[in-house]
Structures are given as C-alpha cells and as structure tokens.
Amino acid sequence: MDELMEILQELNPAVDYATCDKLIDDHHLDSLAIISLVAELEDAFDVTVPAVEIVPANFNSAQAIWAMVQRLQEEG
Hints:
57% of the residues lie in helices and 0% in strands. It has four helices and no strands.
C-alpha cells in the first residue's frame, strides 16, 4: 500500500489519498491521470489492468485501487 500511496502522490500531491473516497467523483483523477496510474500500477505490481476494471468503483479511493491490485495479483 505504501508504494501505491507514493504513486498517487506523484500524480497529485495536493490530495489526501488516505482519506479521500471520491477521487473520480471529485475530479482528483481525470482520464489522463487514470491512464498514467494504470501504467504505473502494471509496472509496480506486475499486474495487467483490463479495460473492464477501469471503472469509478475501482478508482474512487486508494483502498479501492489497492483492493483491485491485490485481486489482480491473486488472479495472476
């Protein structure tokens, strides 16, 4: 989770990712940021994020992103 938080901070250091649960809804992450984030996640965690996973529910909070990453790692 620490590595995920570092990746998110690089995208937008002004956001409190530890508590924000509306990253998409409050426009903290836009489409370009999500594309960049997906690439970073795939490199950092050795996962492939399929297009069907790129939905607001998976990206509205750091916890949701982390849960998705863990699930993708398990499905491996």
